[in-house]
Design brief:
The chain has one domain (about 5-95). The protein contains three helices and no strands. It is an all-alpha fold. Bound molecules: zinc ion (ZN). Zinc ion binds near residues 65, 68 and 81.
């Protein structure tokens, strides 16, 4: 293969990668939007219904912290992020 041909092939690969990257960027953007909607729903529902629901979710074994929201947690250990999030929400409720 001539060098020119190799360069052309490389250029094609780069183009394909850039296209893939653009697609991934769009997917990340969509996920970030969705994440923001979910978070604002959580904040809103905790404002409306108090922190009871969040506490319940946490006790049922789900993370309520923004870091791992809605993921299953190890119930034998407390999650520090969840606990600080709960106390933050409680603090807001009593402001
Ligand atoms: Zn957590």
């Amino acid at each position: 293969m001539k060098i020119t041909e190799s360069i052309l092939a490389l250029e094609e690969q780069i183009k394909a990668l850039l296209e893939e990257l653009a697609e991934i960027k769009m997917q990340v953007y969509a996920l970030e939007e969705k994440n923001e909607q979910v978070l604002s729903k959580v904040y809103r529902s905790s404002e409306i219904q108090g922190h009871g629901n969040l506490q319940e979710l946490y006790e049922e074994g789900f993370h309520i912290c923004p870091e791992h929201f809605a993921q299953i947690r190890d119930v034998s250990q407390d999650c520090l992020f969840c606990l600080s999030f709960l106390s933050e929400v409680r603090g807001k409720a009593y402001e």
